[in-house]
Structures are given as structure tokens and as C-alpha cells.
Specification:
The complex is a heterodimer of chains A (285) and B (329). Chain A is an all-alpha fold. Chain A is 74% helix and 0% strand. In chain A, helix 3 runs parallel beside helix 7, helix 3 crosses helix 10 and helix 4 runs antiparallel to helix 7. Chain B is mainly α. Chain B starts with a helix and ends in a 7-residue tail after the last helix. Classes of the chains: A mainly alpha (285), B mainly alpha (329). Chains A and B meet through helix 4, helix 5, helix 10, helix 11 and helix 12 of A and helix 1, helix 6, helix 7, helix 10 and helix 11 of B.
Chain lengths: 285, 329
């Protein structure tokens, strides 16, 4: 009986939490734009559509680049890759963090020592720099591949936090009871421990999602993003390379950066909102 | 304390060895002959290609067994030999990096320290103050989510191109040579402001938010309630909370360094600021892999050293590490 009541309580506070609603609304706005946007334009991101360097107009909503490409088309296709990187990179990063965190926290002992060491090692490596070395030697780089290697370096803090949580849950009575009644460790983790930190895992995923987007944007901006396709970071890279700033072509570099800021910022604000919903201590002051 | 340092040192040493190994292994285990790929991509003339080819074959040492290549790489590294740049051909990579590093220090050190101090002070001030929390906190979240390079581009466009307030390209005026004159220092300072500002502002948001959340958490802790129950002045309670909240922020600084350095690379590219970030861009555009690897290795070592310094600072601030009660590894 306890389960449904708790759900209702969360729902009750969700409805009252302005941060959560604003954050979610913005994220959804951009998701819809990413899904529908490419249907609204008849061009491809690299098509020559009009004489270059035109400011926004009713025909070209976000203007055109120096090479006569439609900025709006690039923008909506870029949004798609942004969300893809977020979902794949953030999701995989969370998954690795969960696996390592649960294993280290539940098993303890020497397994914990080794995994903890591994976590700390990956944690201090400046991941972007290692990504640069790897990316520079690949002749063909795909979007999914980029997401995967971002995830390979982004999991440590999640693993660390989940390990600490698992550690504190492991010695609770209900977990002991499970162990005494002969449940398998895997089952204990998934039926006794994981449900108690579901909200925490969700928050972790949101932060990993945002982090993956920012890392991908930086990597694309430096020029080592996917070799095919369009991304928001690549738009900013092109704008800088072809001196959009000096040429007053603000419509070229403002939309991509604004979108990243809005999406990641909304994710962070959603995160705070959710935290307040799940954590009674933070609710009201 | 010895245990604490022992563990930390071990982690740094393992990380360092792994990083160097990755740096060594990637060009060798990628498909194809790295030297041929390098030469082909650089698009050189036939005779210079031949010269560089023989140089690189020797530099990579591809004709000796693999373990010997690995050993040679380490020996060269300890001699400070990172190879010769392709982009600025006869110059050794180490020399190019040495010229860039002062600019990185000039930019990063003040940006990191000042934003950390200011962000923490401000976050502590904003916590539990209703209207500040409602106005500034959302702004700080947005700042934290801003890509460094975008803020840099905005500042360059607004302050540089639109308002003609500040220069936004290079580290000093093109018309000058580096010297210890007032006009040069003035030019250096002017060129420094915008990249510094964009690094400072983004980081400031992150620290302010982190501190605000920590203070709220600390004010809910038992010791705070106990102090309040004793009738301690609000200021005193908050100062205890601030000191306790500072510890995770120091750890946070160590964890954030990698991301900050990444942001600084992008910022330098926006402002053509001649630090290592700008070198990396040149290296990528000119397919100069020795320079790229050297720069990256250099950054990794720098970040590890900085982490170690932060650990030292942590011991000074947190007495628990000194008596061996430290649980955090």
C-alpha cells in the first residue's frame, strides 16, 4: 500500500514546482523543434540556397551563412544530433556509472578497491584532451561513436555517487532480510536497492545528459566532431573560422549557442526541481 | 596523512602512466602507417615530404621492436623531447609549447582562483535570501550551462565589434613586439580582459550554485540547529556552515579542472589567444600530430600537478586528513 501513496505525493509536489515545470517545458519545446524542424525546411544543411550572408527574413528565418546555406536548416538538424549525443552519451555514461557504482558499493572489499581506483584514475584525466588525441587519429568519425567515447570518460562521478548511496543502503535491515532469505545479489540490487534510489538515478541521468551535450559541443567546436552531418558545435566552429563575428553575422553563431545554453540550463533547472520534489528537506524555505 | 598521500600519489602515478601510454599507443595501433598518413594529410612537396618521412620514421622508431619503441618514448619524454613540429617545421614541439604556456597561466590562474572565491562568497550570500535566490540562482544555472566558446563569441561581438570597447583577437597588438614597456603591458591587459571575463563568468555560475546548495544543506545539519537552539547569532551559524561547505567545493575544484581546461581551450580559439588551446587548433588544422600530442600530454601533466596541489591545500584546510580519519579516497 505504501507505494501508490508515495507516487501521489511526488506527483503533488511536481505540480506545485515551478522550476520543474519551466525546465521540462523548455526541454520539450526543443525536442519538438528537433523532431518537427527538419520537416519545415525543404533544404539540406549543406545546400546552397541563396546568396550568402543574408540577415534573417521571412524566407530564411535565421538568415544564411557566408556560403549561402540556410542557418535554420543547419540549426534544426544540429538540434537532432545534440539530443542524440545527449541520449546515447548521457544514457551510456549513466549505465556504466550504475554498473560500477552498484558493483563497488555492494560487493565491497577488493572489488571495491579496484573499481574505486579505476574511478579515481578516469576522474582526474582531463577527458576532453584524451578525446582530442583519439579523435585526431580517426579519419571517419560518426555521431554515435562520438557519444560512446564521451560516455567512456563521463561516468566516474556518477559511479562515485552511486557507490556511496549503495554503500549506505547495503547495511539496512531490509537488505539484510533479503540476503538472509537467500536472494541472489543481483536480485537484491534490482529489487531492494535500486528502487530506493530511483530518483537519484534519474537526477544522475539528467546531469550526464547535459554534460554530454556540452562536451560534444566543445569537441565539435574545436573541429574534431563527427565528420558527417551537422551539429550546433560545428555551426559555431564554421562561424568562427569564417569570421562571422567580424562580419556582424550574429544570426550565424547566436542560435546554436543559445539553444545549447537553453537546453542544458533547462535540464539543470529541471534537476533542481526534481531534487526538491524528491527531497523533503529542500522543499520549502 | 601518509596513507592519504600514498593513495593519492598512487592514483596520479597510474593516471600519468596510462595517459602517456595512450598517447604513445594511439598513433601506432590505428590502422595504416601513421607516418604515411601524416605526410599524405600534410600535403607537402615531394622533396620535403621525403625529408620529413625519413625524420618521422626515425622519430617513431618503427623499425625497432614494440617494447623498445615504448621505452624510447619514455626516455625521450624525460628528456623533454616531444618531437619536432610539422607546422613550424624545424622547431621542436617543446619550444613551441614553452612559448604558449605563459599565456595559459596568465589566463587560467586568475580566472580559476577569482571565480572560485567570488562564486563561493556570492553563493553563500545568496543562500536562504529569498529574492536573491529567486533572481540570481536561475541566472547562475543558465551561466553554468553556457558553452564557454559561445559566451566568448557573444562578448567578442558585443564588446569588440559592436561597441569597439576592447580588442578581441590575439594576446597583444599586432603592431608590437613583446617587451617590458608600459604600452605593451597595457595592450596585453586589454587583450586579456575578454577571454578572462568569459572564463570567469561561466565558472562563477557553477561555484555560486554549488555553494548555495551546500549552505542550505549545512544549515539543515544537526550542529546548525543545535547552535540556533543555543541562541547563537545567525552570522555565527552561517560562518560555520560556510567553512564546512568549503571542503566539498575544494574537491569540486579538483574535479572540475579537466572541464575548465577544456573550456579554456575553446575560449582561446575564439579569441585567437596564443595559448595551448590555440596551438591545438593549429595542430589539428595543419595535421601536426606531434604538436597535438605534445600539447595534450602537457595539459594532462598540468592537470595532474594542479590536482596534487589542491590535495595539499585540502590537507591544510581539513584537519581530519592530518590525523588519518579521512574516509574519502
Amino acid at each position: 500500500m505504501a507505494q501508490p501513496r508515495k507516487q501521489n505525493e511526488a506527483l503533488y509536489f511536481m505540480r506545485r514546482n515551478a522550476k520543474l515545470q519551466i525546465g521540462v517545458a523548455f526541454v520539450f519545446l526543443f525536442i519538438i523543434l528537433a523532431l518537427v524542424g527538419p520537416l519545415l525546411t525543404k533544404y539540406q544543411p549543406r545546400d546552397y540556397v541563396a546568396p550568402g550572408a543574408q540577415p534573417p527574413s521571412s524566407e530564411f528565418w535565421f538568415g544564411t551563412t557566408s556560403f549561402g546555406e540556410d542557418v535554420f536548416t543547419q540549426f534544426v538538424y544540429g538540434l537532432r544530433s545534440t539530443f542524440l549525443v545527449g541520449i546515447v552519451g548521457g544514457g551510456l555514461g549513466t549505465l556504466i556509472g550504475i554498473l560500477i557504482g552498484f558493483t563497488a558499493g555492494y560487493r565491497g572489499g577488493i572489488v571495491d578497491e579496484i573499481l574505486n581506483m579505476l574511478t579515481n584514475v578516469v576522474l582526474v584525466v582531463p577527458s576532453l584532451v584524451v578525446l582530442l588525441i583519439v579523435a585526431a587519429y580517426l579519419e571517419v568519425r560518426g555521431l554515435v561513436f562520438e557519444s560512446v567515447y564521451i560516455a567512456l570518460f563521463s561516468w566516474p562521478w556518477a559511479a562515485r555517487a552511486i557507490r556511496a548511496q549503495t554503500f549506505s543502503l547495503r547495511s539496512r535491515d531490509f537488505v539484510d532480510l533479503g540476503r538472509l532469505s537467500g536472494m541472489k545479489p543481483l536480485k537484491i540490487i534490482f529489487t531492494e536497492i535500486a528502487p530506493n534510489m530511483m530518483s537519484y538515478l534519474l537526477l544522475t541521468f539528467i546531469l550526464q545528459f547535459g554534460g554530454a551535450i556540452l562536451t560534444a559541443a566543445t569537441l565539435d567546436f574545436i573541429g574534431l566532431g563527427p565528420t558527417e552531418g551537422m551539429s550546433l558545435g560545428l555551426m559555431m566552429n564554421n562561424a568562427t573560422t569564417y569570421s562571422a563575428i567580424m562580419l556582424h553575422m550574429w544570426w550565424w553563431f547566436i542560435p546554436p549557442g543559445l539553444a545549447i545554453t537553453a537546453i542544458v540550463g533547462s535540464l539543470y533547472i529541471t534537476n533542481v526541481g526534481l531534487d526538491e520534489v524528491f527531497n523533503p528537506k529542500l522543499r520549502e524555505t | 596523512m601518509r596513507r592519504y598521500f600514498g593513495r593519492k600519489l598512487l592514483i596520479y602515478i597510474i593516471t600519468f602512466i596510462l595517459a602517456v601510454t595512450v598517447d604513445w599507443a594511439i598513433p601506432r595501433f590505428m590502422p595504416g602507417n601513421p607516418v604515411e598518413i601524416l605526410i599524405a594529410r600534410a600535403g607537402l612537396k615531394a622533396e620535403s615530404a621525403k625529408l620529413i618521412y625519413s625524420y618521422y620514421m626515425k622519430a617513431f622508431g618503427l623499425n625497432v621492436p614494440i617494447w623498445r619503441q615504448y621505452l624510447n618514448f619514455w626516455i625521450a619524454l624525460f628528456h623533454g623531447d616531444l618531437g619536432v613540429s610539422l607546422w613550424l617545421f624545424p622547431q621542436p614541439v617543446m619550444k613551441i609549447i614553452k612559448q604558449a604556456v605563459p599565456y595559459d597561466i596568465l589566463l587560467l590562474l586568475p580566472a580559476i582562483l577569482l571565480s572560485w572565491l567570488a562564486g563561493n562568497k556570492f553563493g553563500a550570500y545568496a543562500a536562504r535570501s529569498k529574492w536573491l535566490d529567486n533572481t540570481i540562482s536561475p541566472l547562475a544555472y543558465i551561466l553554468q550551462a553556457t558553452p564557454y566558446m559561445w559566451l566568448g563569441m557573444l562578448l567578442a561581438w558585443l564588446c569588440g565589434v559592436r561597441l569597439h570597447l576592447l580588442p578581441f583577437s590575439g594576446a597583444y597588438s599586432n603592431a608590437m613586439m613583446p617587451s617590458f614597456s608600459w604600452s605593451f603591458v597595457w595592450s596585453l591587459l586589454q587583450h586579456w580582459i575578454l577571454p578572462f571575463a568569459s572564463l570567469f563568468i561561466v565558472q562563477f555560475g557553477g561555484w555560486a550554485i554549488g555553494m548555495r546548495n551546500m549552505i542550505i544543506y549545512e544549515l539543515e545539519a544537526d550542529y546548525s540547529h543545535y547552535l540556533e537552539a543555543l541562541g547563537a547569532p545567525r552570522k555565527l551559524v552561517r560562518s560555520y556552515a560556510f567553512h564546512n561547505a568549503l571542503l566539498p567545493q575544494i574537491t569540486g575544484l579538483a574535479l572540475q579542472l579537466g572541464a575548465i581546461v577544456g573550456g579554456a581551450l575553446a575560449t582561446e580559439i575564439v579569441f585567437s589567444y596564443p595559448g595551448i588551446g590555440f596551438l591545438i587548433l593549429q595542430a589539428i588544422q595543419n595535421h601536426d600530430y606531434f604538436l597535438l600530442q605534445g600539447s595534450c600530454l602537457f595539459i594532462i601533466i598540468g592537470v595532474l600537478l594542479a590536482n596534487f596541489l589542491i590535495d595539499l591545500a585540502y590537507v591544510l584546510v581539513d584537519p581530519r586528513t592530518r590525523v588519518g580519519m579521512q574516509g574519502e579516497g
